[in-house]
Amino acid sequence: MSTVGYLGPKGTFTNVAVDAIFDSVDTKGYRTIPECLDAVNNDEVALAVVPMENAIEGTVHLTVDYLIHQVDVPIIAEVVIPIEQHLLVHPGFTGDLKDIETIHSHTQAIAQCHQFIHKEMNNAEIEYTSSTGEAASIVQQKKGSHAAIGNILSAEEYGLKVLRTSIHDYENNHTRFAVLQKNQKPVQMKELTANTYKTTIMVTLPSDYSGALHQVLSAFAWRKMNLSKIESRPMKTGLGNYFFIIDVNQPYDAVLFPAVQAELAALGCQIKVLGTYPCFHVEAPSLSTEKTAE
Amino acid sequence: MSTVGYLGPKGTFTNVAVDAIFDSVDTKGYRTIPECLDAVNNDEVALAVVPMENAIEGTVHLTVDYLIHQVDVPIIAEVVIPIEQHLLVHPGFTGDLKDIETIHSHTQAIAQCHQFIHKEMNNAEIEYTSSTGEAASIVQQKKGSHAAIGNILSAEEYGLKVLRTSIHDYENNHTRFAVLQKNQKPVQMKELTANTYKTTIMVTLPSDYSGALHQVLSAFAWRKMNLSKIESRPMKTGLGNYFFIIDVNQPYDAVLFPAVQAELAALGCQIKVLGTYPCFHVEAPSLSTEKTAE
């Protein structure tokens, strides 16, 4: 049985992503993205799951930078899950919103529910925690008029009930997670149908000149290769030097991609393929009724 | 005197940015990016300073998304400061690295110092806090074998001394902060020389088709307008719809920009100018000797 490392602790959105694609697998939670990526790079775990975009638990940049500068582990799958934040209280709590005196959560979770808190719970005190899991654990201990903001997993982990579901401000807030594997052995995943296939490549421009990026994109455009994401990031060697992360909406093939790579190399660009992989869009875990009922 | 709202509490990197460009100004710290942006939008404060890129205190995405979807406040300046993390201890502490049993800090700060901790302090316990300021406050109270990771401001705020300077893994780690102002009144800033001028625009593509971005960039490329950053972001209306944030390396003018806008409008794109502004690259605050000496 392969162990899956993930950005923990238990109850994080990354944990939700792990549960969404793996069946009864051994898991190990790491507290930072570098720790988790080092673990898969050093063969402590067979696979790693870390947030790539719009995550509450760690910045995307940290993941991308670490994959580029520190470890050489390909992306083998992507998981996209909706971010849903709920208001969680102790199971013995019998009041309503107005009776909540203190809300506990991670800064980013509080920020994501900003409008709801402002309109519905403007008098509650806010206490910031290091994670949504820690917030749930505090509410489990304090009982009374305390509430936590977090996902369903953290409610289940600490035996809390859901007082209000989906209190986040934006309905279409998703997080992308990357599944990484160093040795390309077969992986036991749930039977999911891939929504699409992607190839992620990193392109470093030879120097900062106007129109360079335009030239790079030409190589994809005239081949009608669709890009689903492009982002420029500063190199760690100083301000002003950029590389680009480009997601191409198709699997790596033996014709188009090598041709693009040859064309970009002729322009003086450096290219690194970070992975070619299926993408799975999964639902957020649903509420189990015994947890929401009093 | 105008009040400057910023992503607080005191001692954050955003606070460092405020000190770098404003002289003896009234400030007010907010605990989340939306709160801070609402404050400037509702005229509670005259100006706001929030992280835009690579920040430890909040995701960039949150700032950009809020500026686009929730408030209409232009960027009037950008401040770039190096991220420097130091190991802070109680002034009464007389040991060395090996005597530190517990390190306190924000997850992102711990992650940024991952290599240092791994090599130099591998036996220390890690305790995660909601901010680097909270970590410093804990070390102030606990004394003994506790250390915090944070910047110089948080050391000064809590009277800690610096045991090791610059323990972050990457030397060239910078954070970009945006200064926002709703009413375009003259602002009293320190006398700094702008390193460059930028214009940030948001472009929404009419639909997802191959080469669309390439066409958009053509409008800039053939005018030799240099882009310093480009990033695609999903619209909140669902996956698959994208907008682009583009930083052009020159101030808005009466000829080139209107021509680009007309050309993009003809392609069916929507354009929004988020600001045209000077960029200031400033030094991280230096150590005052009386704080570092025992």
UniProtKB/TrEMBL annotation, chains A, B:
Pathway linked to the protein: Amino-acid biosynthesis; L-phenylalanine biosynthesis; phenylpyruvate from prephenate: step 1/1
Stretches assigned to the ACT domain: 201-278
Protein name per its UniProtKB record: Prephenate dehydratase
GO biological process, one term: L-phenylalanine biosynthetic process
Keyword NADP: no
Keyword Amino-acid biosynthesis: yes
Top-level taxonomy: Bacteria, Bacillati, Bacillota, Bacilli, Bacillales
UniProt cross-references to SUPFAM superfamilies, sorted A to Z: ACT-like, Periplasmic binding protein-like II
Any single GO CC term annotated in Swiss-Prot or TrEMBL for this entry: cytoplasm
Annotated ranges, domain Prephenate dehydratase: 3-182
Keywords, in A-Z order: Amino-acid biosynthesis, Aromatic amino acid biosynthesis, Lyase, Phenylalanine biosynthesis
Single GO molecular function: prephenate dehydratase activity
Site (Essential for prephenate dehydratase activity): T175
The protein's Enzyme Commission number: 4.2.1.51
